[in-house]
Structure formats: C-alpha cells, structure tokens
Batch of 4 targets.
Target 1
Amino acid sequence: MIRYYKLLIAYFLCPLISVPAMAASAVPGIIPAPVEVEMREGVFAFGAGTVVRCSYELRPLASYLYRETGRRVRVESVAGIHGAQNVVWLFVDPAAGLPAEGYTLEVTRDTLRITGADRAGVLYGIQTLRQLLPPHDNLPVSVAEIPCVRITDYPRFPYRGFTLDVARTFTPCEEVIRLLDLMAFHKMNRFHWHLTDDEGWRLPLECYPELAREGGFRGGGSPIRNIYGAWGERYGGYYTPEQVWAVIDHAAFLNIEVVPEFDLPGHSRAVARIHPEILCRGPVDTASSAGYDLRKVWCAGREENFAMIERIIDEICEVFPGAVIHTGGDEVPPEQWETCPDCRALMEREGLENTAALNTWFENRVGRMVAARGRRQAVWNEAADGGRLEHDPVIWAWENHESVERAVRAGYDVVNMTSQYYYFDMKQSASEVGLAWGGVVDLAKTYGYEPVPAAEGDGRVIGVNGGFWTETFLWNGEWWRDYQLFPRMCALAETGWSQGSARDFGDFRERLDRWHLARLDALGVAYRGAPGVGIREAYAVPEGRIRAAYELTGSVPCTARNPYSHAADNDTRTFARTERTARAGDWFEFRFRSPVECGSITVRSGYSALPRFVIGPAVLEVSYDGRTYEVVDPRFGYTGTFRPRAAVHSLRLTVTGEGNGEDAVIIQDLVIMP
Ligand code: ACM
Ligand code: ZN
C-alpha cells in the first residue's frame, strides 16, 4: 500500500514520511487538490454492469453521475451497504465526522463508496470521481479503471464563488448554466449574479417591469447610451422569470447558492434613465456624452426612493432563496450628493460628515430591509468606509489587499475578491487583450495569492471569489469568456477548497498540464492556450511599416496633451485624444504630404490593447486625387484595413452613429504596409 498525503500540515508533523508529488502515476491529479489521498493496490472497473445504489433522496445525484460520466450504470434505491460487486454506493452520513461539504471516496476492487457529510459532500465526491476517470473516455459502453484509493476531503472555506457581470454584456441563461456546471466541477458553491449596473438592468421584476423591459437595452434609441462594443445598434437582453428560476434551480442542484446583486446607490444609471426622478436635484450631466445624462446615483435625500428600493428588495427576496442579498455600495461618485440640497439637508440632520458616511448610512438603510426579510446583506468594501455597518453584512473586498485587511480588522466577515488577483477581466500577460488597471493577472499570481491576511486568525475571511466583469466582452467575442476564466478559475477553486498550507504552484501546474486541461478539453472549455485557441495577442504594429508623412485634422478638438499630431508622428506609443466623443457628422481626415504608394493601410482608433474610446460607427473613404472620395468601409467601427488601388492622397472618416458611449475618441497612427 502506498500512502501519501496532500496535507502538508501532516507532512510537517510527520517529517519521516516521504511525500511524493500528486503527479505520481496512479492517481490522476485532482483539482482542487483533496485533503488526503491514500493509494491502494488494484482497480475498480467502472462502467459495464456497474450499479449505483443510494437512498431515494440521492437518486438525482446518481442520475447526475450517470449523465456526467456518460456511463450506462443502473441506479437502484436501497438502504444499507451490504456487500456486492461492481457497486457504487452513495450515502450521507452526518456521523462520519466530516466537516460540512466533506466526503470520503473509497475505491476497492469491488465497490466505490462516496460518503458525504451532507448532500453537498456526496456531490463533491462525485466531482472527484469524475476526475478519476480518463478525461476523453466518456463512451457509454466503455469500462474505465479507477485506481483503488481512499480520499478524505473537505473545503478550506465555506464560500467559494464566482461573479458574472451580465449588465455590461448580457449572458444568456444556457451559458450561465454551463458556467454553473463548470463551477460545480471545481467544487465552487456561490454564484454572484451582477444583474444591474449603469449599462443595463437584467432582472425581471413584477413591481417595476419597465426596468428590465426598457433598461435591459442600450443604444439604437434606448434611453441608455450605447457603449462597449455595441455602437449604433440596440443591444441587450434580460432574463425571463422562468430563466431566473432555471438558474436558481440548477445552481441549487449543484450546491451553488445564487447571490443576486442589486447594485446601488451608484452604478445605477440604467434605472436612473428609466426613472430619472430617483436622481438628486441638480443639473443634468450631458456635456461629454452626446446628450446622454450620465448621472447614476440614487438621491439619498429623496424619501420616496427608499419605498421603491424596498419594493425591489422585497421581490428579490421572494425570488431568490439564498441567504445573502448583495446591495452594492461601490464606486459612488460624490459630486451629486455634494451639490444636492436634499442630500445636504439629510447629512446635516443625520450628522454625516462626508459622502462616504452618507454611503454607509444608505447601505445601512438598505441592510435593514434585507435583515427584516431574514437575509444577510453583502456589500462592496467602500460601503464600510464611512462608519459602522449595522446589519452584520459580509464585506466583499475588491479594491486591494488592504481593503481585505481593513474589513478583517473592523471585524466583518469578508469575501476576498481582490482585483489584483481575482479579477478575470485583467489581462494575463503584457501583450494580450484585457484590462490592466489591476495589473497583469497571470495564473501563478492568482494561484499564489494567500487570501487570509497574515495577522488574521479567527476565520474572518470566509472565502474567495473570482470576478468576471464584461465591459470588454463584446469587443473580443464569445471566445473571451472561457479564455479569461480558465484555467485561472481552477486556481481560484483550489485556493477556496484546498488547505492553504498544501498549495504549491509547480504541483498545480503539473496537475493542470497532465490531466486537468484534457478534462477541460473534453468538457468543451476553450481555455487560454487550448488547441485552436492559443494565446491571443493584442494588436501589435508589424515590422517594416512605411513611415509616410501625413497630417491629421478633424471636427472635434483634441486635448493639449494628446493633439492630432500624436496620431501623425509615426510613433505608435502616442495617440490623439479628443475633448469629447464624436457624433454623427463629425469627421477626421488623414492627408498625405505626397501621395503614398502602399500595399495596405490600417486605420485604428481606441487604445491599442484595450478597445475603448473608439471612433464608433463611421464611413471610411479614400481619395486618390484629393477631390473625389470613394467609400472603402461603410461600417467602420474601431479599426479597418484596406488595400488601395493607387497612390493615396487622403483618407476621411465621417461619423454616422450616436457616439461611442465614452467622453472622448482616441486615434492611433496609421499603419501603412508596403
Ligand atoms: C467593483 O469592481 N466595482 C466591485
Ligand atoms: Zn440627493
């Protein structure tokens, strides 16, 4: 019998036992790594004639095992575990002494027993069993040999979550369900559904049906401005009540609690465009936005707002059965509250010194509504910046590690979602597409981060959470989702589940490369580096370009710091930036000092690594004589390459749409190739 332990605590306590790597040949590397793995001789033949026996209550999990392994196993409902051959036993044994969600998986030549501390434990035993099977071997008739082994396993943290922002980019219900399946495969148990934000309201409500019906769409005549890759067309969507229930049901089956978020008092432009009366008294903010009012904060001094919020919270609590309701509290711009007479009067009355205190006051008021309905409030870390939160909320610390430490010190329960490690919209290397304000977040960085501050010993950090914010999604397309999430989500899952002392990036990487990526392949996950996906570099300026002399002018003034000349200096590190967005009728012109002969010209707008501040819908024309123009691209968006048929005199872009949804346009140097 070979014995080894993943639990390095045990290793340090028993320095004489040698600990071979998880990669040792017999057991496929499991992710997240189990607490304890004890190898034995022999194999169990899973497949032909295997019977699954379990109590009536566990039959749906037996069917799940059947479905997920693709094996034609028979399911029988029986009590007791009397000896038989070729049997998989599933049972719950609260007396087994396992922590919540824990399980043992014991494989002998005759039987395979999964004993859960609870139903969730059985589910997680099944997930481990799935990983003991060969990844590509899911033919119903085949037999898989599973090594004899005894695994004892339980989670490090009770909260192992994932945030999906469906406001910036709408994610259809079927795709949400696919992600839930992948979460469960990695033993994750909380789905944070970011359903409302400035760019859309996706939650159907009986009390305010217009919020989803109208607020679910942007651009193309919607009161919500277009932005983030859907310019000049109506974009959006919202869930039906049946779809919300389908997500909640599917999640519940997989031991995943759905945490819905109603983000307020900031991040509320969508609701404010449908119900402008919720805003502070004061001037509209349209100067930079092609006519769209950019205000997005609920007025704290307008009493009727709290009646509306309470109706929404009430319905959310009716629809979502989970213990926690997220009420936002992040990134509230202070300006409107500072100038609003009603908010100022309120601050005076309540003795609130600043807008941070007003934000905390606001979240306390909403927290009371949540608590009155028997639920627990979750808030972003800024909600605690202006005083004490009174309703025992869970703080979701996202800004940085200090925000985790601050919340822990203040004695709150904390979900660690630090953007510098757990925001999966961040780029994965310097040259790839993605956001970078949280830095480059590569796999080793996500994996290597210890989520519990060193000084903390009393379990205040209740878990970890990965965030997928979707501002840049439409730019990149569907491939972007799996590419950003996997395998970083595997690393997060292991941090959430496996014992902290056992984490070793080299070992994790080996388990990924030898086994787990093949499992993801078999599940159809197009992870970063997957066959056919590879590594996607951001736009790189090719070698050997022609540095022609040209002048750029336009109808929109540029900033002094980024004048038009910066997009005409052949230095691709600099760019031009306008003082406002471009609207229908605005134009930009590139005029060559002398006609240039070339093979192709690429016109680029927006940042080169992060497509924002683009020109948006425009017509691109070329002139070969300086007098007449011909259209080369009637639907220019942010970049375009064309092949001139003669020496080019000038290029002209005429904007046709309603702006790019931002407050500026960035124009890059032309890339001219021989
Ligand atoms: C956040 O990223 N504003 C939570
Ligand atoms: Zn106000």
Target 2
Amino acid sequence: MTGRFITFEGIEGVGKSTQLRLAADYLRARGVELVVTREPGGTPLAESIRELVLQPQDEAVDAVTELLLMFAARATHLGNLVEPALARGAWVLCDRFTDATEAYQGGGRGVPLEHIRVLERIAQRGRRPDLTILFDLPVPQAMARSRARGAQTDRFESEQAAFFERVRAGYLAILAREPGRVRRAEASGSVEEVAQVVRGLIDPLLEARG
Ligand code: TMP
C-alpha cells in the first residue's frame, strides 16, 4: 500500500511546525514509517532554492519569479523525496505545499489561480495531499505570536498585516472549496489542545491502514 501524504498549512505564528513535530512523534509511536519534510525545501537543491527565495534580495523579486522558484523546488522535492517515499509505503508529513502557493502567491501577491493550476499540473503530475490541516488564527494574534518568537528575517515574515489577511483569506477559500481534503484546526488553544485536534484528524487515516 502506498503511504499517506499529509500537509500542514497556515500563516506564520499559528504553531504549525510545532504541531507537525508532535504529529510525527504520534505516528512514529504507532509504527508508521515516516518522512518529515518541508516546502520550499526537503532536498539539497530545493533547500538551496528555499534560501534564494526567502532571503532579502538587492533586486525586486516579482510574483512570477517567486511562483516559479516555489514550483522548481516542489518539482525536485516531489521527484526525489516525496514520490519515492510514498511508493515504498512511507507516510510523508510536509510543512506547507501547493496550498501555500495559492495562499501566498495567489492571495498575497495576486498571481492568477489559473497560472498556479498550470504549474501544478506540470510539477505534480496529479499528486495532491490526502489530508491538509489548516491551522487558523486571526492575523493580529498570529503576528503577535510570530513576533514574540523572534526577529523578522525573511522576505515573507517582513510583510505587513494586510498581506497576511489576504494570505489567510486565500487559505480559507481553499478550505471552503475542498472541505474533504482540507480540515481546519483552531489554533488559539494550548499546544496540547491543538495536538489533540490534529490527532483526531489523523486517526481515521491510521484506522484505514488497519
Ligand atoms: P516557513 O516559514 O513555514 O518554513 O515557510 C517559508 C515561507 O515560504 C513562508 O513565509 C511561506 C512561503 N511560501 C510561499 O510563499 N509559497 C509556497 O508555495 C511555500 C511552500 C511557502
């Protein structure tokens, strides 16, 4: 049986990476062979692209450039890490995937969705997550958490509230459109409360595995 592909999404400050680590512990304790990865990144080339796309640049980085870099990283990550893992039956937990492109480059930067769809078809060859957990918080709360965590460094973290409002709206639009695949996790609770919600979303996949 091929593995399961689960993605974690949300704006900065919602606690998604912490929850991904906890979900990984939970699955490993149940004997699931697991690959934990992230986008952009996950393979050496994709991590190099991550550095390029996140670090502040001396020249303007337009939305199309950003979009193509995200998909370039995604294509090599899928081909060299995600697909081989799923094929051997491992589960893949991925911190962000194409919904982030739709929310950030689409919602945040205004890239037309049909451009994203074209690149999705080319880069993913039909691969989509089995389950996507969207960690959701109002933007002011998420930004306060993100600020409390440390200095703003990368090109996205230095964006203003209005940008993150558009990104969040982009995510909520995906949730409304695909309520079967995408599940909302209210992120305002404690780490343990949110982790319990996550386990509740993952358990049906574990049960289906038998
Ligand atoms: P991270 O901080 O969650 O690791 O994500 C890195 C940044 O990259 C984050 O600000 C969101 C952004 N991003 C996009 O804009 N588009 C994408 O397709 C992905 C995967 C991430």
Target 3
Amino acid sequence: MNQDEWWREAVLYQIYPRSFADSDGDGVGDLSGITDRLDYLAALGADAIWLSPFYPSPLADFGYDVSDFVAVDPAFGTLDDFDELLRQAHARGIRVIVDLIMNHTSVEHPWFAESRSSLTNPKRDWYIWASPGAGGGPPNNWLSAFERCGPAWSHDEATGQCYLHSFTPGQPDLNWRNPEVRAAMRKVWHFWLDRGVDGFRVDVAHRLMKDAELRDNIPELAHARRHVTHPLGRQRHLDLPETLDVLRDLRRTLDAYPGTFALGEVPISDDRRLAEYFGGDGMHTAFHIAFWEQPWRAAAFRETVDRLAGLARPGALPTYALATHDISRTVTRYGGGARPRVAATMMLTLRGIPCVYYGEEIGMADAPPPVEQRLDVDGRDGTRVPMQWDETGLGFTRGTPWLPPGDDRREANVARQMADPGSLLGLYRRLISLRHASAALRRGDQRSLETGEDVFAYVRSCPGERLLIALNFASRATSVDLAGLPGLPGDGRLELSTDADRRTGTPVDLRPLTLAADEGVIVRIGDHP
Ligand code: NOJ
C-alpha cells in the first residue's frame, strides 16, 4: 500500500469529545481525557480517530455552531492540549481527523457579527441575506433541517433583512459564492493541516452551495427538510453541482499534505448523487448513509451495499458506520443480544472504511435523558451520553456528567467487557485484529452471494486469500446453499463466529452452510479457484 493512502485500510473511531473522558472533573469530556485513553484505542485497533467539534461554540447545535474555527473551546482544553493529543496519538500510530464545518458558523462568530451590523459592511455578503417575503414572512420556502426550527430564515432587527440558516437560527449559512469566504476557509484548512492533522470529516458537504437567485423549491419539494428526489426536479438549497468545485478545491489543498484525506458527510438519499461526491477529484470517501437506515433484514443490507458499490467510481471506498452522534445506536435500533455482534461483523468485513462510534464496541444503548434535562434541538441527546468506562460512571468523570449516563452501564462497560474475551468488546477487538491481518479484508474485492432473505453472505478475496462472510439475520437456524460460488471447496476453516464458543480453526461444512440463529461467521475458503 502507498503509505499516503493509509486511510483505505484503516479502522476509524468517532469520538464525541464532550462524552468520551473528562480529565478535570467538570462533567464535560475534554481533549486531555482523550489523550489519557489512547492506549485503550490502540488496544482496540483504531487506526484513526475522528473528533467531533471541540471549537468554541455557544452550543446552539452542540459544537456544530462554531464561533472560532481555529481555537479550542475552554471546556475541552487548549491548543496545547490538542497538540499533545496529536503527538501522543501519532506516537501510537493513531491518526487524527477533525470536523470541518464549512456550511455555517455560529451567530457569535465575529464574521457574522460584522455581517449583520449593516447593509454595507464589507462582510455583509459573507452570509446569505434577503429581504423578507410577502407579508414580512421568509424570503422563500426553504426549510431548516430541524423540524423544531421551522423555516430556514430568521429576521434580523438590525437591518430588517433575513439570513439563511439550514440548521438552527444560531447557525447562519456562509455564502460560498463569495471568494473571500473561500479564502477565509482555506486558511482554516491550512491552520489544522499545518498543526499536523491527518484529515477532515466534512460536515454536510452537499449543502455548501445554494441557488444563486434563492428561488423557491418546487411545491412538490417544499415540505422536504433533508435531501429527497422527485421526478419533477431538484431541490434548490442543497446538492447543487457547484458544491463539487468547493470540494475539489479542498482536495487540491489536501494533496499538498500527503497522507491526509477527507471523509464526507453527505446525507443524500440518491446513491447515484452520493457516488459523485467521493473517490474522484473531490473527497476521498463519504459515509454510506443508507447503510445505517436499513431495517434488520439481510436482503436490505445486501441491496444497499451492492447498489452504492455498483455506482461508485472504480476503486472508491464508502465509509460504513452503524451509529453516530446523530443516529441512534445499534442496540437501540436493532435490539441487544446477538444482533450487535452480527452488525459489527458486517461493518468490519465489508469493502469500505469502517467507523466505530464510541461506545458501540461495548453495546451502549441510547439513553434519552428525562424531558427536563434534554438539551439538543433535534432530540439526539440519547446517543451522546458519556462513555461507560465502568459500572460506576467514575471512569468518565469524578464530577456530575453533563448528560445522565445510561442505565445499561452494569453490562455495557469497558472494565467488565475487557475482562471477558466473549464480550462484544472482545468481538470488536478480534474483528479488528483479523481485519488488520487479512489482505482480503483490508483491500480485497467483494462479491455478494445469492443467499435469500435471511442471510447476507459475501466473499472477500485477493490473490492468495479468500474469506466467506455469512450473516444470519434471522432468529432461527438457517442453511444456505452456496453452490453458485465458483471453485467452492466442500468445507472451509472457521476464522471467527459471533458465537464466542465456536473455536477458530474448526472445519465448516459449506454444502450447505448452516448458521445458528443470529450468527455471523467468517470462513477461510482458501485461495482463488
Ligand atoms: C451534521 C452534524 O453531524 C450534525 O450533528 C449537525 O447538527 C449538522 N451537521 C449541522 O452542522
């Protein structure tokens, strides 16, 4: 492998800094807390960590409303703490990628303070301003992504105009048609790249450009808060072709820092469009959004994985996550027991870049706080609760945690699962170490097999190695006929089963292959036929 393309074979780990580890006892996780836990991440096998925002923010959208792009919020520490985290991570061979929020700033960002101060301020055009519509309402029919925020426009008393905000009113959208905005954001890229970060996760990369004339969305699309497709036309406030130019510009900058990469968050429901965003001359990879939206059905996962793989550019790799700070956790969506084990086996064996959200490896469930303690505008607190290092909660903080910890922490905690190789954490560690050791898993081809409704099965192969992965999504034992697989031997050797009692190395009969209820297996089936 070309070392600059390390990310192609990496296992990523997402950290939500408020909730990972609190080193100073104020109840909020911080950068030094993350540094203290790097050995845990190294032992898990994380090749890179993605840090959700740690920049100064008034928290209208919990860090995704940034008031200074080139500083650390005091709640998380200092720039020196960041440098130390980077140094210590690199010393362990762990790369660090940071969140790049380019679509909007906070209302408290000095750029916006200037912009809103007068119609003639030199930064007026850095944001998207328009006169109110008929009757003093919003200038057009665009909606904020968040239901609770209503229209995507807020009226500003100072100048009598409205500003655009695709998210909360605390997050005014930047005007990427203005070259000064591009130049200012380029400085932000260089700031972090010069500090030594290994790349960016690009927040809502598909939203950067808006219709230059701010035309209404067509009535059929007027209700849509997120990306949707419609035969009559496209949305005018997101996924504009010009967006890709900005991402190409970012790519040119990254290319000057060998070994860096961009991972896009592109929540687009149309895989054909999503495929345009990565693997070419723009971002290197993007999340496979539909992956975490699937119901618990083998056929649904097979179709969604194969569809994007069929549309993506040759060699392009999507990034697979089961949960994020926006998306409910695996245990909450699919149930506990064996399913999270099957899901982990899938994510960590697919052709793509796996990204583990903190706490997924111990099977944390969402823990929505009582109504009076809810903080997030879009109801996402439950998926952001403190990392469960131990049963007491003291592993996260010696103070009062900013969100109440989950009730499941007696079982779902690191200390307990570390001591049990059969735990979910034990399985994650084995899966990641197998991925690291296997060229077929790291960089092999992938071919799905026709195995019906209950089983998602695929072969990962490269010269010299061939692995069969078979995942039973049904809660009953199932046999699958693999006769269509060319050169299939009569049996293989078990590499790993989600059932911790089945021993590695035991022969596995393949004609047919029988899986227990909710079981996933990785079977070594020899070289290419
Ligand atoms: C996507 C982020 O993941 C989410 O948390 C945030 O609310 C929006 N972008 C706006 O930045």
Target 4
Amino acid sequence: MNQTAVADLAPQRAMPAPNVPIVNIDPYSEEVLTDPYGYYEQLRDAGPLVWLKEYETYAVARHEAVTRVLTDPKTYCSSAGVGLTNFHTEKPWRKPSIILEVDPPEHSRTRKVFVRILSPRALNKLRERFEREAEAMVLRLIEKGEYDGVTELAEAYPLKVFADAVGVPPDGRQHLLPYGDMVFNAFGPMNERFKQCFAKLGPSIEWINMACQRENLTKDGFGADLYAAADAGELTHEEAGLLVRTMLSAGLDTTIYTIGNALACFARHPDQWKIVTENPGLARQAIEEVLRYESTFHSFYRTTTQPTTLENVALDAEQKILVVVASANRDPRHWQNADSFDVTRKATSNMAFGTGIHGCAGQMIARLEGEIILKALATHVDKIELLGKPHLHFNNTVRGYSSLPIRVTAKKH
Ligand code: OVM
C-alpha cells in the first residue's frame, strides 16, 4: 500500500471554515447544563455561526440563524440523524425514527398520518379527561401540602394521561422514563452520560417494544389510530409500531420536564405566579413563557446535504450543525428583556418546539397538558414554595429536574 492510500484510510478530522469564530465551550458539561444561559450568550455573541472545537461541529444559537437552518430542510437535513452521530458514517443506537430522522418525501407520508391523529379535533375529545385528572391530582397534593413536584406531579400526570391517550398498559410505565432519557441522551455525544444511561436500559427497551405492539394497545388510543391507518394502507403495520415508539419516545420526558420547569419558575417568581392565580385563563400563555424561558428541549442537530453558504461561511456537505433552540429563546436580538420571566409576554415565536416541517408534531397535546395542569394549580393554589434545593437532571438534549421539594398552599375561597 502506498503512502497516499494510507492517508486516505486515516480518520478524517473535520476542519472549520477559515472565517468562522471558534468557540471552546462544551455544551454537554455539567457546568454548562447547570446554568447554560451565560454560555448561550457567548455562543450568540461570537457570531451567527460558530465552530464548536470540542465536538468539531458548527453551531447556531441566534433566533434568526436557528430559523434559517430549521426552515431549509433540503440543505440542512434530518436523515443523517438529528444528533451528533452521523448516520451516514456511524451506526445509530436503535433503528432510526421514520418521522424524526427522515427527509421528504418519506417524512411527508408519516408526518401526515401523525399530525391527523394528534389534530385539534382529536385532542378536544381528551380535554375533559385531562382536566378531571389534573383537578384530582392537584387537589390531592394540596391536601398533602408538601411533596416532590417531579415524581408526584410532573411525572405522574403525563404518565397517566398521555400514556392512557396512547393506550399503553398501566403496568410498567416507569420504563418509559429511562427509555426517554436514553433517546434524548443519544442526540448528544457518546459521553459518560450516554454510556451510563445505555448500560441501565435493558428491560426498558423490552417493555417499550412490547407496548408498541397492536395486541397490547387499547382499542381507542393514538396507538390504535396508527394501526388503523396501517389497515387503511397509509402505513405498513411495522411503521405503525415505529410511530407508536415515536409517541412514547418524544411524549414523556418533554412534557414531564416542562411541568417541573413550570413549578420551579413559579416558585422562584412569586410575582408572576400571582398574575396567573388572579387570572387562571392566562395558563396557556404562561406555559408558553415557561417554554421560552426554560426550554425543555435545548438543542439538536441538522446535517448539510451539499456545499452551501450560511452566514457568509462556506460549508462542506456532511457537516453537523448544532441548533441551540434554548438560546434562540433568550436572544436579545429577538426578544425584549429576553432574560426576564414574564407571563404577560406573547412568547409564541419561541423555538421550544422547533419550526419548519419537523416542528414538534405533539406540540398541541404538550400545550394542552401544560395549560391544564397550570390552570388547575392557578385555580386552587395560592403559593408555591421551594422547600429545599431542586435537583437538576442532566441530559444531552433536554433540561429539567429530577426532584423539586415544594409546598403548596391552598387559596382561601
Ligand atoms: C422519535 C422521536 C424521539 C424523540 C424525540 C422526537 C422531538 C422524536 O422517535 O421519532 O421528536
């Protein structure tokens, strides 16, 4: 073998374009994940497009550049994976998602079915049940007074109402949590956090695979709807199972951490809580501000399909770009008083659900759960206080708490 051939076999090191600012921040370190907002500011201020030295990848952290990347799926694709792993060169930890990790035209077919099943019309039928559960749960917790806001409310509510809505068995639902943790860690680097999570995963994968099968789903849930779409010829039956897997992957950790983040935000901002308690109708707008201020989903990737120019930087094909949606949501170029938590703000252009053709397909049910829980709390609870230090849960893609010791005090009627 001659010298050139050996050089060709050597692993290629990705190189930044010559005119791109280089940033030496590890966005997955505990330091950054503990309080990311100063780091996001550094990323935004370094330039509209930067190079992350640690991971040899580009990153966008301003609202405008994030929008640009997410609204051009032809150039910035999802089929190479939306994590740091490039599916063209590295093996994904599980069979790729047929809605998240694909491009049009494949994406369009699965997305269409998924969106119809989660349509406002379908969700309207769930509202009453969701409200009844929220009311009962909140009243029980007021009775209790002091509790863990994560396990007893933020986890308990979606594990009941969302998992019921999909139609999975009641026994074993705790498996959804380590599984979801893995799904979201896997969008980041294969760091210790990823490895430890993977090592603990065994029985949870089995449970999820079981729960995605038609015979284990109720006859009236989203899962049954997906299999009905397969009967109608819109999907194969295997695809229906994979889309149930998508619901179980994407639908729990996200809403769970959002409810926890809402509790933490309001415990820390009693003036904002007062505004919502005086007008529980603000719950929907308030959950939007929670999503802007403490975005549950902090970041993911796109991959260039061809050489292109972004923010005056020439990019090669096959380049990963970290899209920091949580930073876009704090960008002072887009938001007034970006760092203040203000429930009177209209936060609807936030990027917490992404945007474009891959914008969160479950965002309406996520908002519904958040709104209903906040409204039940705002109707009955006067004060939310932290009793101790909340514990953050570290994950490569989502942000939230593993425990939130709180006390709630009932309103005097
Ligand atoms: C999926 C999936 C998993 C996690 C998140 C997500 C944000 C989708 O399995 O399709 O969307």
